[in-house]
């Protein structure tokens, strides 16, 4: 069980300790940090074969252990245990000679122990090491502490004064804005890719990562879960902004900046005019701080460009239905659907193993009819949980025989239509017309050489229109496998149901007649058969293996 694994217990205790520290409960934080560090006996995985995955996880845990040691000394300083901090930091500095937080703590501990000359000597030693090995100066926080120790006030008050780091940290608000972590399924491969990029100790720029994919693919749940797991790496705060990119009213970047600056305790009265100046103010507020920002549901690159930190210590997770290919990402992962096996695991988690296994064939059929789309699967499971007298067969029948199957995939505020409606409404009218005709005609797979026209639909280039529909994720591409071959586009079942609804509500008589023309085009292009295996490759070409919370990051 995950709860019995030392590394899992260690991370939970560390996160709990930091919550206690943020609330000012130093005793509770000290107890949890001591328990967390007591779980360590030697280096992580020292008795295991050093494969790449094992080595990466060992490095991650070793870095996290060092973070815990830094937090423990921070709390000890605040509680007045200055002499103990001095004795425990000196061997750590010998092992990690460029870890500036350790020097900062040692300087503070020496001064508070009545040894100011030694504190200044520690700073001189650090500055010489950084200049020789990296050609840099100490961080602004270390320099501020050095100047404070040189001030007449420091000499006057002597060792009784409470000096940084804790006094500095206590004066700076530590935001914790993440939504609640959802006990759901997340793609383990996504977190395996993003976690190292977000926590790498040798990075030279802000880690900017992204989770992209169609609506309902679980991007937000994964980003929030990963951000919770990485809280110990970002002790100076976690920011969260819902950018509303999939709604009709995306959040203005200036409003998002104001929200984050307010969370960082920046007075709104001092906010400069102009988004460029506000973005610079945001970057300055993060200087020297380890803050993780989640920018959820971004509309496009322009919306997030001014919302990115500029310091190497901070990191960003962006989620978006757009691919955001022009941003300088450290890492980007594309989400897709679950596999049928993973869909059954989700059903078992929500409804219990016995209910799923006694109706297994029908459960598989419900998963198929849901297209293995995570949101659709969750809604199906929620409806079955709310109506225990329904079987999977009952729901499968309703999804198959109702004229509006998407009505069956609506539960409370959740609706599968929300996965497709925003993309549809952002289309130009010509592209919306083609989408409606796909639904009206029943065509599910279509390709067209460049320049193909549909005169009755006023579509001058069908190939380009199909590409635009694929860009919005309303179509999927069946890769032809041959360089230069004309791609085929596939309309998944749930999207096809939505296209039929839009055609029934909006299509004109001319458009209804034109559906015949679209069918003829599809028949003509079907001279090159679309094998079921080709569509299977689209379904199987998913990014990441989905698994239950607790297995990642590995």
Automatic annotation (TrEMBL):
The keyword Iron-sulfur does not apply. Keywords: Transcription, Transcription regulation, Two-component regulatory system. InterPro entries: AfsR-DnrI-RedD_regulator, BTAD, P-loop_NTPase, TPR-like_helical_dom_sf. Residues 5-150 form the Bacterial transcriptional activator domain. It comes from the Bacteria. This is AfsR/SARP family transcriptional regulator.
